[in-house]
Amino acid sequence: MNQAIPLESDTETEVDFMELDTIIEDEFGNNKENLIMILQAIQRKYNYVPQPALTYLSAKIGIPYSKIYGVATFYSTFSLEPRGRNIVSICLGTACHVRGGERVRERIQESLEISDGQTTEDQRFTLESVRCIGCCSLGPVVKINEDMHGRISSDQIDRILDQYE
Ligand code: FES
To answer: What's the total number of domains in the chain?
Structure first.
């Protein structure tokens, strides 16, 4: 069965094509072998992968849009939806779960007034639950961007979130 592939439906983000050229040509030599790394660089730039960037990338490196879209949706690390400036990942793996990860998640949801997978209206935070991020002995663990916060309790959440603009 053919999957419907959204094309150019993302009109919220203005993509700077000169900046894309810098990534695609200067950093990765216009080389289709570097597709994953190019997508990672685009996501670092915009905090997600805007669809106009996928279309442009397709034309630039000569890979059909459907293939690039397939790669971008296959890996959970890529987001095709706009995300907040800070990504809050709450671990709900077994070790974190038994140490109160669920209570921590509820507290984050209350504080940010969003549910799992959503972004705050001011685009400050996106909340995602994840499975084991490899530091079980520190559970429950919350990762914000690249920062690990371990052995946290619900009453520390607001203080931690306040550290991120
Ligand atoms: S279960 Fe949470 S870090 Fe492993």
So the answer is: 2
